[in-house]
Design a protein that fits this description.
about 240 residues, Lysozyme, about 65% helix
C-alpha cells in the first residue's frame, strides 16, 4: 500500500511541476536547445569584403573564415542582447538573421550591426517617425516592400513579430543594395534616410557617411566580440 501511495504522489508531483514549467515558459530558454542553421560562409565572406573593401584582410571578419560555430556565436549574441522577456524568442530571431542573410547573400553579423544601431535589440521599440521593431521599419515602407517581395503582411502589427520584422527589413536592405549597385555607403545610408535623400546628397557632392559609420562601428565591435569568444572556445578545447 505504501508503494502504491508513493507512486501516486510521484505522479501528482511530476504533473504539477510540468504544469508550472509550461505555464512559466518565459523563464526557460527553450531556444538554446534547438539547432540553428549553419551560416552561409561564402555569402558572409563576400559581403564582408564588399563592406570592408581593402580593410577586409586581417580583420576579425577575415580571421573567422571557416569557423563552423559562427551560428552558435550569433545565437549567443542575440540571446545576450535581448531583455529577459524576449529571450524565449532568441532562437527564432537568430534563425531569421541567418536564413534571411543567406537568402540575400549578406553577412549576418552586418544584420546584427543594423539591429544594434536601429533598436538595440528591442523588438517593440517605436521610433519618433513611426518606425517599428528590431530593424525600425516604417509601416508604409514595410507594406510596399512586403508586397514587392511577396512577404505575408497583416498590417503594421506584422512588424511587432521579430522574425517578420527581420524578414521585411532585409528585403528592403536588399532592394537598396540592388538599387545602389552594391555600394555600401549609399545603400546602408539609404536604409536610414531613404534613397531620395541619399541621391540628393550625392548630387551636391556630399558623401552620406554618418549613419553608415555608426553601423560599421557596431559591425567591427560585434566581430571583435565574436572573435574573442571564438578564441576563448578554442583555448578551452
Amino acid at each position: 500500500m505504501k508503494t502504491k501511495h508513493l507512486k501516486t504522489l510521484q505522479v501528482i508531483v511530476t504533473a504539477t511541476l510540468t504544469s508550472v514549467l509550461f505555464t512559466n515558459f518565459d523563464f526557460i530558454n527553450w531556444g538554446s536547445f534547438a539547432s540553428i542553421e549553419v551560416v552561409n560562409e561564402a555569402s558572409r565572406v563576400a559581403h564582408a569584403k564588399e563592406l570592408l573593401g581593402g580593410h577586409y584582410r586581417g580583420s576579425n571578419a577575415h580571421k573567422l573564415e571557416g569557423r563552423k560555430a559562427l551560428n552558435e556565436m550569433i545565437y549567443d549574441k542575440v540571446n545576450n542582447s535581448l531583455a529577459p522577456k524576449w529571450k524565449a524568442q532568441a532562437n527564432s530571431i537568430a534563425r531569421a538573421v541567418i536564413n534571411e542573410s543567406s537568402k540575400y547573400n549578406m553577412d549576418p553579423v552586418f544584420v546584427l550591426a543594423v539591429i544594434k544601431t536601429e533598436s538595440k535589440f528591442d523588438p517593440v521599440v517605436v521610433g519618433r517617425h513611426g518606425e517599428i521593431g528590431l530593424m525600425q521599419i516604417k509601416p508604409d515602407t514595410a507594406e510596399w516592400i512586403a508586397k514587392k517581395y511577396k512577404i505575408a503582411w497583416q498590417g503594421k502589427r506584422t512588424l511587432e513579430n521579430p522574425a517578420a520584422n527581420i524578414r521585411i527589413g532585409l528585403a528592403y536592405m536588399n532592394f537598396l543594395r540592388t538599387t545602389f549597385r552594391g555600394q555600401p555607403v549609399t545603400y546602408v545610408s539609404a536604409y536610414n534616410m531613404g534613397p531620395k535623400n541619399v541621391r540628393r546628397l550625392i548630387a551636391n557632392n556630399v558623401k552620406p557617411e554618418e549613419y553608415n559609420s555608426r553601423v560599421m562601428k557596431n559591425y567591427g565591435e560585434l566581430y571583435a566580440l565574436i572573435s574573442d569568444h571564438s578564441s576563448t572556445v578554442i583555448a578551452a578545447n
